[in-house]
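Work Package 3 (structural annotation) set out to generate three-dimensional models for the target panel prioritized at the project kickoff. During this period the team completed the workflow that converts sequence records into discrete structure tokens, so that structures can be stored uniformly alongside our sequence database. As a representative example, we reproduce one entry of 298 residues exactly as it appears in the project archive.
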Amino acid sequence: MSEVSFLGLGELLWDCFPDRRLPGGAPANVAFHAQQLGLSAATVTRVGCDSLGDEICEFLKSQGLCLDLVQRDPIHGTGTVTVEPASTATKYTFKPDSAWDFLEATPSLLTAMKSAKAVCFGTLAQRCPVSRAAIQTCLAAASPDCLIVYDVNLRPPFYDREWIEQSLQEACIVKLNDDEVKILAPMLGASASDNAGFARWLCSQYDLELVCITRGGDGCLLVNPQEIIDVPGISIKVVDTVGAGDSFTAALIQTRLAGWPLDRAAKFANRVGALVASHAGAMPVLATELAALRREFQ
């Protein structure tokens, strides 16, 4: 396969809304937006040998993503999730025993991991012991210089303290939202009274370079051992928040690889997340708009 700089490691699936079906899956969303932001990206996942798998692969291919690391499963079908938007919290119902639950750490995948400049993975794809073991094997194969980003992305009931702590230990950067802070802080026994304090505690406890907390319409908070960057929200007409956090993660990765100052990276990622939230679906095609936004910040 051709060398790619970024790998989105985990689930690729169809987001099934009440009125439409759109491609999604957090690590795949990050890879999609990373590609739109100028990185060479690949989705590392597994889909079924079915029409849903064919269709979602064709979409990613049309957007320039490398499909060499998309495994095809002859037994398990392509994943789907029913998304039910609500005023309080969106409800997600995931199809059990989906192809992405059975990801394999193949020799070609481990070779790709060794050369990747950045990798993003999450918690959901670790719900099955098979994929969890494969993900951990992949992370162990990454170069010491690889930027490993753990997008916590909790989807009840598919998380466990043991998986989360192992993931935190593997990561350089951790990204989560303010609702996930409320779950993780007591779970991990953190001694902190606010988001910034929890982020500082995570950095110290797990030797992290950076912790990013997104807050929806209230912006984001980026914390490392030396500084705290607090970026306010942007007033937009929200169409769909699914995938906005993933685009934030993609922008953060792109700017970190490019060596941007942290405050500029935070403001840019915040703008990218707002742009995606103003469009439908987790993977809106916005390469032109994102290129213009990058020029504005460079």
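Residues 6-288 form a domain with the UDP-N-acetylmuramoyl-L-alanine:D-glutamate ligase fold (CATH 3.40.1190.20).
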